[in-house]
Amino acid sequence: MAIESGSYDPATGIWSWCRPPAQAPRRALFLDRDGVLVEETGYLCRAADTVMIDGAARVVAAANRSGIAVVVVTNQAGIGRGYYDWAGFLEVETRIAARLAEEGAALDGLFACPFHPDGIGGFRHPGHPARKPRPGMLLEAAARLNLQLGRSWIAGDHGTDLSAGAAAGLRGGIHVLTGHGRAHREQVGDLRTSSFQVVPADSIAGVLPLLPALFP
Fold first, then answer.
1. Are 91 and 72 in contact (CB under 8 A)?
2. Closest to 130 (Cα-Cα) out of 178, 79, 58, 205
3. Active site residue: 34, 108, 157, 161, which one?
């Protein structure tokens, strides 16, 4: 089932693609895209500029083998602001899927929200429920893929990534220093509560040895 079959739903404000859900509920590893899965370039919209972060494919492949759903949830303000369109977004996602496949890895779902407070036309919204730090994309993914949110984690470089995870009822978040992570490390500590764990990592590669403890 190719990522090109994904589509935008104006009712939810989310572009989505996902594999058929498993019959039994699954745990999930949610991933932000830019700065976590791929290098942060600023409004990435060309395959030629897409560079996977070292270790990303290994983490995805390990999660695949463990039966953990891997779901990308990404804010796409560049679409909302009119810098590029869904075709540019798909160009990047197709390259990512190909790079993952080269190492025996695959995503289970991909969810993107184009809304932004400075968006143009219909994509202007002061706080769309699907845009992180709000949990809309994670909740939609859970409904579509039969996910157990309370046993799932999110990896992100922004505080908004982890905030979305907390709002969705995830078990916790892994904060990485790649992308914009260094500027957010102190902030994300404030998100730690009795019901939401915060785990630091240098990059997504650091998630690999953590998987058995995060998903017992």
1. no
2. 79
3. 34
Give the pairing of strands 14-18 and 109-113. Answer: antiparallel
- Residue 34 scores a pLDDT above 70: yes
Q: pTM of the full predicted structure? A: 0.98
Whether residue 171 is predicted with pLDDT greater than 80 in this model: the reply is yes
Token digits of residue 17:
């693609």
The domains of the chain are located at 35-153+160-214
Whether domain 35-153+160-214 has CATH 3.40.630.30: the reply is: no
Say how far apart CA 83 and CA 77 lie, in whole Å. 9
Quickly count: other Cβ atoms within 10 Å of residue 11's Cβ.
5
Mean pLDDT lowest for which of 1-5, 28-32, 101-105, 115-119?
1-5
For the question of residue 34 being annotated catalytic, the response is yes
* Cα separation, 63 vs 61, whole angstroms: 5
Say whether 9 is catalytic: no
Give tens-digit pLDDT for 35-57: 999 999 999 999 999 999 999 99
Catalytic residue chosen out of the listed positions 9, 32, 49, 161? 32
pLDDT of residue 2: 86
pLDDT value of position 1: 67
Rounded to a whole number of angstroms, the CA Rg of the chain reads 16
Quick one: which of 175, 19, 23 has its CA closest to 108? 19
Amino acid at 196: F
